[in-house]
Specification:
This protein is of the alpha/beta class and 551 residues long. The protein has helices spanning 26-37, 62-70, 74-79, 125-136, 197-201, 223-228, 278-286, 332-351, 361-392, 399-419, 467-470, 484-497, 541-550, and strands at 14-16, 19-22, 42-46, 59-60, 90-95, 103-106, 121-122, 142-146, 148-149, 161-163, 168-174, 180-185, 187-190, 206-221, 235-241, 250-254, 260-267, 293-307, 311-312, 315-317, 323-324, 420-424, 440-443, 475-480, 501-506, 519-522, 528-532. The strands form 6 sheets. It has an 8-stranded mixed β-sheet with strand order 6-5-15-16-17-14-18-21, sandwiched between helices. Strands 8-3-2-13-20-19 form a 6-stranded mixed β-sheet. Strands 1, 9, 10, 11 and 12 form a 5-stranded mixed β-sheet that branches. The chain is globular.
Length: 551
């Protein structure tokens, strides 16, 4: 099935556009919205006519919800949630079984709520995709091809993705009829999953780290499990640590309130849906019998993957096509949506003539190190620290030592939420003091201070608006009690460089004082390019700052 907002060419003809996106999951659809809202002609190719009803990618961070706010879909997304807002979406870690005596709160994202404009959310990925599809349908510059795909090379008679100095050519195939069509664009983006044909046919290699673990995904219905877990009010996801799993989790999550659940866990190699007792496996993890009605049984291999480059010429990769990892900690879909936000405005800036020659390269320079850090410093580290804890502590062997270590883990879980703060301190398009040790990383700290390379925290302006309500689609210069000639220098520099710049002037009182800067230059994705009390009394500093930001 094909859904278009403009006439599509007949089979065999060539469709011309500016950007072609392959893969219409959350990342591809988010990128299409980012581009479509900026007036970029975009074609998005998605193999499934409807979102697939597998509950994954459920935890959406405060930062991700900022994307939905700016994409004009926040209200619709919150209305689509499957768990009532008053119930809560917290997490819990348990030792041994879910009903055992050892538990603590886990992944308390509400702890960093003050540093973001929006609150976090939780709903199945298929519900998120439905909201994104609805928003895409409202954008006249985006054409959607549902039920179409890019074939992998062994299946295709010839390469389906090719490029030259002038653009990219992508051959797409309708799955139902086998009809083929060619889409030509200035740029192509593969958002087509971990086995991405776009990545492979573009010559982008990947580095994989296999953990030699076969995992099961179960989707099941159970009313009794809801009643058993009523002792943990406000919790929607639960992970169970058991010594024999060597740091890997048994992970439960609510799909709705009261009946539908999903479950990830390691299983022995060679396990199939017919040769393993999944009923007992679930009940053993909970610590009590309960009713189970399976809706889905699937398997996947636990591994880490990162593309060795996020760009090859005019082809980019994003989301699972660029990186993949176990679903530990809710990083996956949020990381992919940040890819979309980062790349989207940079593609638009380049196509519209106000992006510099190195702006597109900064996508890889910023996003790839951040995922490498996420993988190393949070996900892999979590598996290893859990393994070390389970090797060292056993309540049956030394209950006092176990309890002490368990309390320390609970405090560490709080620290993890605070320290996960992706930033672009080492970015080539961020103005910073000359320091050789600055790097883009997922490790940081949440602070209200406006810091170059970091996400801008919200603040109420003296005018009554929130800073986030004053941000524009291009660059925004906040000027809090700043000198008029300094502001004029930025305005003149923006005119010289032909970059869109909005100026927001206000007094330096109240909450904005915590920014610790009178002048703050903010990018279209709400990251700070530069911040300072003033610009130096030397001609051309504003021009230099904006030149760096432009790429």
């Amino acid at each position: 099935m094909t859904t278009n907002k403009m006439d599509a060419p007949a089979p065999g003809e060539v469709e011309q556009t500016e950007v072609v996106i392959v893969g219409g999951g959350p990342v591809g659809m988010g990128l299409a919205i980012e581009l479509g809202q900026r007036g970029v002609r975009t074609v998005i190719v998605e193999r499934y006519p409807q979102p697939q009803p597998i509950p994954k990618g459920q935890n959406l961070t405060q930062r991700t919800m900022e994307h939905f706010h700016f994409w004009g879909a926040e209200k619709q997304l919150r209305a689509a949630r499957t768990i009532p807002p008053e119930y809560g979406i917290g997490g819990l870690t348990a030792y041994g079984t879910l009903l055992g005596p050892h538990t603590y709160d886990w992944l308390q994202r509400e702890l960093v709520k003050p540093y973001y404009y929006t609150t976090n959310e939780r709903l199945p990925q298929y519900a998120t995709e439905a909201v994104l599809r609805q928003r895409v349908a409202e954008l006249p510059s985006v054409t959607t091809l549902y039920g179409w795909e890019v074939q992998a090379e062994p299946e295709a008679e010839a390469p389906t993705v090719s490029q030259n100095d002038d653009g990219v050519s992508v051959t797409v195939r309708e799955r139902h009829s086998g009809v083929q069509r060619v889409v030509q664009a200035a740029y192509a983006v593969g958002c087509d999953g971990s086995r991405s044909p776009v990545r492979e046919q573009s010559g982008i290699t990947q580095t994989r780290t296999d953990h030699d673990r076969m995992m099961v995904l179960l989707v099941f219905r159970s009313h009794e499990l809801h009643r058993l877990l009523e002792r943990y009010p406000g919790k929607s996801y639960y992970n169970v640590l058991q010594p024999e799993l060597q740091g890997y989790w048994k992970f439960f999550g609510r799909v709705d309130l009261g009946s539908t659940w999903f479950f990830h866990a390691p299983v022995p190699p060679g396990t199939t849906k017919d040769n393993f007792d999944f009923h007992s496996y679930l009940q053993e993890a909970v610590g009590a019998p309960f009713d189970i009605e399976f809706e889905h049984i699937g398997f996947w291999d636990l591994r880490f993957m990162i593309a060795d480059a996020y760009r090859e010429g005019r082809v980019f990769v994003a989301g699972d096509a660029a990186h993949s990892h176990p679903p530990y900690g809710g990083y996956g879909v949020n990381t992919g949506l940040e890819d979309a936000r980062n790349l989207g405005w940079k593609l638009a800036a380049t196509l519209q003539g106000w992006g510099g020659p190195t702006l597109l390269d900064s996508y890889d320079a910023e996003r790839r190190p951040v995922f490498a850090s996420t993988m190393r410093d949070f996900i892999a580290k979590s598996i290893e620290s859990d393994r070390e804890f389970l090797d060292a502590h056993d309540p049956a062997r030394d209950e006092s030592a176990f309890e002490s270590a368990w309390r320390a883990r609970a405090k560490g879980a709080v620290g993890e939420v605070h320290s996960f703060e992706p930033n672009y301190e080492g970015s080539p398009v961020v103005s910073q003091p000359a320091q050789s040790d600055l790097v883009c990383s997922a490790v940081g700290s949440h602070r209200f201070e406006a810091r170059p390379g970091h996400h801008l925290a919200p603040a109420s302006l003296p005018s009554g608006l929130n800073a986030y309500e004053a941000l524009e689609v291009g660059y925004t210069l906040f000027a809090f009690g700043a000198r008029e000639d300094a502001i004029r220098e930025f305005v003149d520099a923006a005119a010289t460089l032909e970059v869109p710049l909005a100026v927001v002037q206000d007094a330096c009182t109240g909450e904005v004082e915590r920014y610790r800067a009178r002048l703050i230059l903010v990018r279209p994705d709400q990251f700070v390019c530069w911040a300072g009390e003033d610009i130096a009394h030397q001609e051309g500093q504003a021009l230099h700052i904006l030149s760096v930001a432009k790429g």
